[in-house]
Amino acid sequence: MLRLADLRKLFAPALILAMLVLAGGCGGGGDAKQQSKAPDWPAQDITLIVPYAAGGGYDVVARSTAPYIQKHLPKKVNVVVKNVPGAGGKIGLMEMVRAKPDGHTIAVIDPADVAILQVGGQLEGVDLKKLTWLGRLDKLPDLLTVSAKSGFKTPADMKGKTVRFASIGSGVAFRSAVIAKGLGVEPKFISYDGTSPASIAAAQGDIDAFVVNWSSAMRAVNANEGKLVPMFVAASERVPQIKDVPSMKDLGLNLEESVLGYSHILTAPAGVSPEIKKIWEETMNKVFNDQEWKDQMDKAKYPPAPLSGDKLNAEVMKTLEGAEKFKDIIATLGK
Amino acid sequence: MWFEGFLNAISGTNLIWLLIGTGIGLIVGALPALGANFGVALMLPFTFGMDPATAIIFLCAIHAACNYGDSIASILLNTPGGPGTVATCWDGYPMARQGKAGKALGIATLSSFIGGVGTWLFLALMVGPVTKLALSIGAPEYFALGVMALGLISVASRGETMKGLIMACFGLVLSTVGQDEVTGLTYRFAFGVPSLEAGIPIVVSTLGVFAISQAIVLMEEGGTVAKVMQVKDSVLSGFPEVVKRPLTVLRSGAVGWFIGILPAMGVSLAGIASYLVEKKYSKESSRFGRGAPAGLVAAEVGKGACVVGDLIPSFALGVPGSVTGAILMAALIIKGIEPGPRFLLAGSLPYTIFAGLVLAQATFLISGVILARWFSRIIYVPNYIIAPTIVVLIFLGAFAERNNEFDIWLALAFGVFAYALGKLGYPVVCLVLGLILGPLVEANFHRSLGISYGSYDIFFTRPIAVIFLAVTLLFLFGPYLAEFVRSRWGAAGTPGETASAGAGDQQLCKGELIALAFMAVILAVFLITARGYGSQVRMFPDLVSATGMALVAYRILGVLRCLGTARWKFTRPGLLFSGSLTWHWSVSAMAVFAVLVNILGFVLTSAVFTGGIILLTGRQKLKHAVLAGFLVALSVLLMAKAVHLILPAGLIGIRF
């Protein structure tokens, strides 16, 4: 039974405990400030946010890379992968954006995917251009895959027709819309939960085409032997691993390349101090030169395409600005 | 090939990892609220150094043992260990209360083993045809299947059809929260809450509906779970109960298997569906819900069959049958192995993995028999210790589902709602059926129309879809038809089910009125909000909200009649000083938990909450409360550390 006397007894120890805790908290804050001057970093475990569910492409890339970041960080801390899925990647992205910019919280994102959220007015005023882009892990061009039952062999077959595209979240719908516009095709979007169900629907002939990165697309093509046809790579160069598939240049197409394709980029919030950013870039360069990491990425069929520093920044800005050009397409997607 | 596979699976380190996986799975599974997805996802990083077969065997062992362990919490505490074992509670827990915990655990152990191994045999021998079947199921077929499963509501709510329909409609309405199923690009009914834009995860809602509500009940009851203070029966005594019900096993196995091999329908549906189908056809159906062994057998066989049935399409088809299937696929992809039809041609590896799958079933069977009695002791622990511990674990599980503090609130809200409606005699399982099936039905309805360029013919021209829809009609109207035929031809007339509205406990009537008014307000808000969405996006929510509104209104009229002239009476909520708490107190305490998490962080809050509840129940001295709080917080901390889970640190920001 709870008596008032008990409560009073409880109060004093609780107060002391609370003060201790507060003191500890403040002390910790003070430490962190000093650390930013002398680059004694990282001070705690690194959280690597994956804004999608466990088991997907982002997750595979993040989990394949995390052990190597851990290996090459200047101090021994854990790199913990944290899946924060939902709302087309928005929830996880916002968690990273709002985290303390001390370099301990990063996320793996694709600039085109998040650009759509921003252009669509979903990001509550966050300016993606200000984020700290730490390093690109890979770059996978999109592949337009069609159902064998659709009868489409070349882009010319599709011109002027209504084509049923799979929409797998806003990123895929957007890229499909961009490609459809370039091909002179009227897209009809049918929503699916992932590449696997969408590819089965295409194999059955229920839909005509889907646009996903070539790695996922070829996995689907191989799993549904003969029922899916890779039409072209939506990039000016062919992909070395699938040399038989023509590039859009081979077919004389000119699509807005800056917003097509996927790249998984490690990103920290805006306002990370230059010292910490430098440590991150050095760490990532060590990862990029680690043959074991490259082998791991190759094995998972996400061939590494490292990029960092000013070149990476320039590329990201091009994508973010490219997405602005398609404001009208993005606005119609939700209708 | 098979011989080589089995040999590989038990050779060297594989066997050791199989056993370790089983151990981890049993612990994670037996803890209430932490389910198989959680266990497998968290162990994934540890498999990176292993070779592919070992990694998959390890993860499959965790998966199998977790799903088995989930039943333990369901039977002993009436708290589903994971979404797959909701139906296990319904007859397992009553058995445990009657002192037959050992027998119940035995039934669960053997049933899920039989379900798993039976499905495995069937699938391993017929991968080809099964793959074809799964591939021939498209959007219209899924739509028909979803409708068929919704038909189960008629069974779930026997005698209380109106209440069941209201619950199902409300579940369907809530299932439309989040990314829309038509375009995937509108975030519906989020009301400015970012976390709602991502929808209501089924793990969180089931935890709330079945586990939080049970925690409230435990605190209310006080005492211990076991009303009969002796558990005399052995685990093995449950085995004959399973063996002597071959029909039940076959029926539930078929349901679980079918749900398993279909991508997009997972284990959360399998147990419930098998149970409800069995309730319709079993001779013992009148005892269901009061400790009928057949009900427990059905729920467990269905779950066991689905657990294995889920995995084989993931490997052989490259299509994940469930979240766990997706994670296992990722484990393979990381190793550079492509799941899909070619997977079966990859030398002895697939056979090793398939052998590992069945061996994992055997290890949980053996460890289940050895350990179950030991686990069953938990029902002697007083509720004032068990209940707060469960609550901490539920909140941990709800949080861990998508690493989101908001989900603690969500679980709590569902828990209070389900607790209240359960008291009023509403079948809350219908709410969960609605939540599970809503997206399936809506998405595939619009998908079908997209595929057919807008023509409704697609539902009547695809043979499989037509068959499913016809079966549904038969299922729903079969009993009425039979009765009609009987009365027409003058056979011995059996009186139809007289749904007695009950003499009408005034208190209950008032409570129901409040609940109905609450639902009406929510439905109205949904109807109004939906006006802002595109015509396709609002079509399904409009339909179910309007239907729900009509049902609620009809029900309110009925309740008003029973209210009569009675005046409102307020009972003053107070503490009961007999080691128990009224729901007002336990719910308030949980709300305080949800607030404190944001200030003190998860670990400290667990300590404060556990200690606080123990003090509130008034049975223990301060030092005992502090000790219990400390122990719970310590275990939460150790658990989080062990599985690399980042807990909310709160405002103070202490990172342990």
Spell out the blueprint of helices and strands.
The complex is a heterodimer of chains A (335) and B (656).
Chain A: H1 4-37, E1 46-50, H2 57-72, E2 79-83, H3 90-98, E3 105-109, H4 111-119, E4 132-140, E5 142-147, H5 155-158, E6 162-167, H6 169-183, E7 186-191, H7 195-204, E8 209-213, H8 214-223, E9 228-233, E10 262-268, H9 274-288, H10 291-299, E11 304-307, H11 309-324, H12 327-333
Chain B: H1 2-10, H2 13-30, H3 36-43, H4 52-77, H5 86-97, H6 101-125, H7 127-135, H8 139-150, H9 153-156, H10 161-175, E1 178-179, E2 187-188, H11 194-197, H12 202-221, H13 238-243, H14 246-261, H15 267-281, H16 293-317, H17 323-334, H18 349-376, H19 383-402, H20 406-423, H21 428-451, H22 458-461, H23 463-488, H24 506-530, H25 535-563, H26 583-600, H27 602-617, H28 622-642
Antiparallel strand pairs in B: 1-2
Helix pairs in contact in B: 1-18, 2-3, 2-4, 2-18, 3-4, 3-17, 4-5, 4-6, 4-16, 4-17, 4-18, 5-6, 5-16, 6-14, 6-16, 6-18, 8-21, 8-23, 10-21, 10-25, 12-19, 12-20, 12-21, 14-15, 14-16, 15-16, 16-17, 19-20, 19-27, 20-24, 20-26, 24-25, 26-27, 27-28
